[in-house]
Amino acid sequence: MSQDRSKSVAFVRRDMIEAAAPPLGQTGALKWARENLFSGWFNTILTLLSLYVIWYVLSGVLPWTLGGIWDAGSLGECREIRDARGLESAACWAVINERWLQILFGFYPTDDVLLATLFHGDALAAAGGVDEVFGGGMNATQRIEFVSAMKNELSNGLIFIFGYWRPLVALLLLVVAVAPILYSSLPRSLLVFSLAYPFVAFFLLWGGSIWLPVLVALGLLVTILIGRAVAGRFGMLGGSLAGILAFLVIFMNPLSFVGAAGLFPLLPHVLGALDGIMPWGLTAVSSDQFGGFMLAIIIGTSGIVLSLPLGIMLALGRQSSMPLIKWVCVSFIEVIRGVPLIVWLFTASLLLNYFLPPGTNFDLLLRVIIMVTLFASAYLAEVVRGGLAALPKGQYEAADSLGLDYWKSMRLIVLPQALKISIPGIVNTFIGLFKDTTLVVFIGLRDPLGLTNAIRATAEWNGIYWELYVFVGMLFFVFCFFMSRYSMYLEQRLRTDHR
Amino acid sequence: MAEATDPPRETFRLSQLLYDARYRSMTIQVVAAILIMLLLVELVDNTVTNLAALGKDIRFGFLWTTAGYDINQQLIPFSSQDTHARAALVGILNTLLVAFLGCILATVIGVLAGVLRLSKNWIVARIMTFYVEAMRNTPLLIWILIVFAVMTEATPQPREFREGGSASMILWDSVAISNRGVYIPRPIWEAGSGIVVAVFVLSIIGIFVLRGIARKRQQATGQQLPVLRLSLLIFFLPTLVAYFIMGRPITLELPELGGFNFSGGVQIRNSFIALWLALSLYTSAFIAEIVRSGILAISKGQTEAAFALGIQPNRTMQLIILPQALRVIIPPLISQYLNLTKNSSLAIAVGYMDVRSTLGGITINQTGRELEGMLLLGIFYLITSLIISALMNLYNSSVKLKER
Prior knowledge:
heterodimer; A: mainly alpha; two-stranded antiparallel ribbon; 23 helices; B: mainly alpha; 3-stranded antiparallel β-sheet; two-stranded antiparallel sheet; 7 strands; extended
């Protein structure tokens, strides 16, 4: 039959037709737009509405931003320029142009000696050289005049790089110190620098004698080494005791109550001797001169670094089978979490002196860092607890059946998995901590938002709001956005299950 | 026949306190208890010494003395002759007010943003991503200040509302947005208005009764009542009828411009609006993420199973997806409510008189009782938090997967 048909049909195609291109509406941008923007009447309305919203917002914001005025001495000048150009609204970016150093660094002192030697050599020589100007030959008013005349000549960029080299170098080194922790592809030997970084940063930012951070670092090193050496011989307990004893001898004064005040500790004596022989150091800067975005970074970084171990310990304590430990951790976490950070900050500034031995009075910045750390660690503890609870019970039992003791099973089996699960929460807590550093403005520290008030209080910039808020908001956004993206990257990298 | 013997009786040695897991936890706890006691004793001792050195004591009697300051927003009557305790109460109510309204608005915006972020519409999803990221990565304080600046700097002055001025009232001349605040109409309750309100309350109870009847009927017979339409009818009809029968006892007093400011109506302060809006917008971004992850957490198989059973898409959402998603969504949602309540203490930035500004601010400054004031303030926040988390735990245990 088939043969019959083949004879009866006039033409049979022997080769395949080339596949035709799909219809125009089924390819490329058109298809994408149809599927993603106009797939139904509701979607079309949404798209049109969104386009309108985007247009509405951009038509307001873009001319204001792009037509902004960068070169003016005051808000009044800005407005004159704006009217002269015939613009309806224009941002007065001149305030950022003029004051960005202040927003970044607050009233942190610039290195005037360096600036003068580098860029103002002639005038410096005319005034009698470094020793004459900065060494006490000139009186204070003259010196201030000299410095402000010099700064008026210099561009903000030069002052940024050379005047604020100390915080800048500290920030660069922070990046170096953090890099090996963030990216495991970097050599592990860099971690040594990460450990040393806190002391380097302290020296750069606060200045003073170089021997203080060096000796404190050495003291800690000696403490740990002694502890380890003894632990190798007499077990964990003996090691800890020896470590604590060494720490007390070096840093504290355990014999003060029997009147042997001069005997211990070692540190001040060595410090005094070294300072006498080699008086090396930088100009000391006191904490109340710190400010601006630098302050947010200092408080944020210290809080993050210190709160992670504390938070993990609290989470483990909350899971503990010992009722007392559990009870203490639970009440600490709940009390800290139940009260807003502002109240804790006010407590730190108003009340902390009541709880400390009479006569002690320490730095407000240090108090704030301690409070922020405690606050963040309570939140972290809850996040980590979630991770610990999410781990199957079999993992704990497997660790036990391998004969690992508590700390080993936590360190090798439980925590690596639990922390991996809780990465998003941990990073969110860090972001929250960093954002919360703005609250220190209420207890009198000069954070970026406090400085916007200070700038607005000057005659030139009275009445300026948006530009300053946009600038400060952008600074925070960049840092927080980086952190959240990094947490996504980390989640991807640590994902070991097969999906 | 082997004789069973007791295992050799162990004698207790002192070293067991350290090396025997049975006793070690006891040792650790005793040591910890001693250390904690020492710490507490030290703290109390320091506090007593320091207070004595300053000539102070710990007393709460200041709460019953005259406050002597005014509070610009009060839900209950308050004058400067009232006590500090009443000032604290006014502050507490203000805190709770902004927290309550903030939670509602944040939920509405957050759910909307979360659902839209999952939208198949590319532009809408991108806009919502931008919104969420912008809100979440910038400090709340900046948002509060920005909204406050919008309210005070970018809105017209009351005199602009005069004839020929550049501003005009919105919503049929009933609401005025000015830099002194937002003025809305004030309802005036005349005789007979109580009956209208009672009818309204009764009709709301009626709606719940109706839903119960409808559910029973569906379970018994399988027939569905048109619940939504009936509810709408019950919601509006009786109240409107009562309103007209009683001779329209509720009228609105519109804000009117008199002199340099508005008179009549209710003034809502800018500080309140700034705090409320900023808190809501900020928290809504977090809620959006919670809603999004909650919906994504329900596996696609659930939807497909429902479709395979022939359930319609909107019923699928209502009966299959939402009940399961809510179990994931509610706990973090409540903790966001908690955060919002605590963040309302940022009222200090705009001068809104919440409990921190009254009890923890002016009262402390006037009486010098910072220890007692901060203690009471902390206790208030702590109790609020504990109540909310207790409710959350109740809810959690009620929706927990029942494993049998």
